[in-house]
Amino acid sequence: MNAPPPANLQRELRQRLAALPGHLEAGLVERGRVVRLALLAALAGEHTLLVGPPGTAKSELARRLHLAFAGASYFERLLTRFTVPEELFGPLSISALEQDRYERITTGFLPQATIAFIDEVFKANSAILNALLTLLNEREFDNGAGRERCPLVSVIGATNEVPADEVAEAFFDRFLMRLPVGPVSGPGFLGLLALDHAPPPGGARPLDEADLAALQAAAAAVRLPAQVAALLAELRALLAGEQAYVSDRRWVKVAWLLKVAAASEGRDSVAVWDLWLLPWCVAPGLERQADITAWLTARLGLEPGMAPPLLTRVVEAFEAQAALEQQAEDLDYDEDGRLRFSADLAASVNDAKGASQVARISYRRQRRYGEIHIHARVRQVDELVDRIAGYAEAIAASRAELAAYTAQAIWMDREFAAPADANLAATSQAIEALRVRALAAREAFLALPRREVDPGTVPEPVTVARA
Q1: Is residue 211 one of the residues assigned to a domain?
Q2: Domain extent for 351
Q3: Is residue 357 part of a domain?
């Protein structure tokens, strides 16, 4: 029986995982997100597709990734429409042919690689792409009459564009991460020119098989909370409504990626903030990724009832009810049940012909309400105010959670964290303004004129029209 691992293994492994991205991106400009996400995908046993023009360090990213794994064998190939299977899978074995066996010598080729970089992955013919499907998904290669197990950890694919055909779509689905890689920005360009040479990463101890096994075991024990599962289901429904198909297989892989991300940071549960990874997993291109990022920025950390538009409709309903009751009128009867006419009558006025005309006599007065009615309305507003206060506390807690998450996160993109926190802050300000309006409506109900004798009627609750 194997001895249990030392107690400090988990902490030591987390520290090394946290240090790896910085070492891998040393000497690169504006490639931090791509490095981190490609590494995370590899740790989850998934593949990454880099989409962008030539000369954007895609091959360099792949070469660096293999340095994160101890004893990793690296394979690299540029595909064209003239590429033949021997270039990827190895030459035919002459000795096997002499024995009537059709086998390849795979040593030094893709079936024996740990990390592989395949440039222009969609340029190859359909026969090669079909052969790659099994290798990427099952980590097995059909060699002659049998299948050989492949040590493949992750493939980095690169392409300028994704063609729209059935074979390419199936192959495209094998890459869990789809990362756009573009030219550096203006400020980044100045940093690029300042580089004499991108130094090879070093100083970080690579991960061995025991490290990967420990991470996989920890990830298997990570929980997927109901709140996170509900958000995944919400996004799935949203995409389905937009006719954006995401396979069930991909959703399962996404859940595993989230668990690996949580385990690598020492957590036993997936956090809602881990969902910032979703755009790169469920959207095929930059435009849709931006849309999903915007949705997540506006959605994470908030419950559905916290949405300012929904709360605004509720507050407006109380404001409208208060105004309606303030302006309502009743017929004015005296003690004998006869209409009481207003004693404050206007003087006679002359019409255009000079004839005398008496002003209309008023027999109405402002409606009065019983204490029970008024207290019922105030109680309804108080419930709304308490609910808004609860939302404010929940948002404050979400901001604190996001800050704590970001401080210890290995993978989180700060470009996502800042707008997400800003959205929470803006939402908090918006619902505070609604709380003030609700309190004003409460005062309006308290200011309603009272009846001397309370009829004891309880009003129907204020209702909110559906949007």
Answers
A1: no
A2: 331-366
A3: yes
Domain end: 132, 165, 188, which one?
188
Indicate whether 388 and 289 sit together in one domain. no
Q: What is the mean pLDDT of residues 141-149?
A: 87
Q: How many domains does the chain have?
A: 4
Cβ-based neighbour number of residue 337 at 10 Å: 6
196 within a domain of the structure (yes/no): no
pTM for the model stands at 0.84
Q: Which residues, listed in sequence order, are joined to residue 154 by a DSSP beta bridge?
A: 115
Q: Three-state SS across the chain? A: CCCCCCCCHHHHHHHHHHHHHHHHCCCCCCCHHHHHHHHHHHHCCCEEEEECCCCCCHHHHHHHHHCCECCCCEEEEECCCCCCHHHHHCCECHHHHHCCCCCECCCCCHHHCCEEEEECHHHCCHHHHHHHHHHHHHCEEEECCEEEECCCCEEEEEECCCCCCHHHHHHHCCEEEEEECCCCCHHHHHHHHCCCCCCCCCCCCCECHHHHHHHHHHHHCCECCHHHHHHHHHHHHHHHHCCCCCCHHHHHHHHHHHHHHHHHCCCCECCHHHHHHCHHHHCCCHHHHHHHHHHHHHHCCCCHHHCHHHHHHHHHHHHHHHHHHHHCEEECECCCCCECCCCCCCCCEECCCCCEECCCCCCEEECCECHHHHHHHHHHHHHHHHHHHHHHHHHHHHHHHHHHHHHHCCCCCHHHHHHHHHHHHHHHHHHHHHHHHHHHHHHHHHCCCECCCCCCCCCCCCCCCCC
User: Which of the four pLDDT bands, split at 50, 70 and 90, describes residue 166?
Assistant: confident
pLDDT in the model for residue 199: 55
- Residue-wise pLDDT tens digits, 362-373: 556 678 899 999
Q: Are residues 421 and 457 in the same domain?
A: yes
Question: What's the pLDDT score for residue 51?
Answer: 93
**Residue 335 in this model has a pLDDT that exceeds 70:** no
pLDDT tens string 8-57: 447 888 889 999 998 898 888 889 999 999 999 999 999 999 998 988 88
Query: Does the pLDDT of residue 4 top 80, yes or no?
Result: no
295/404 Cα distance (integer angstroms): 22
Task: Quote the CA–CA distance of 463 and 318 in Å, as a whole number.
Answer: 9
Q: Say if 227 falls within a structural domain.
A: yes
Tell me: the pLDDT tens digits for 313-332?
A: 999 999 999 999 998 876 55
What is the predicted pLDDT for the residue at 382? 96
**What's the pLDDT score for residue 240?**
92
Q: Evaluate if residue 265 carries a pLDDT over 70.
A: yes
Tell whether 182 and 102 lie within a shared domain.
yes
Examine the domain organization and report whether 394 and 449 are in the same domain: yes
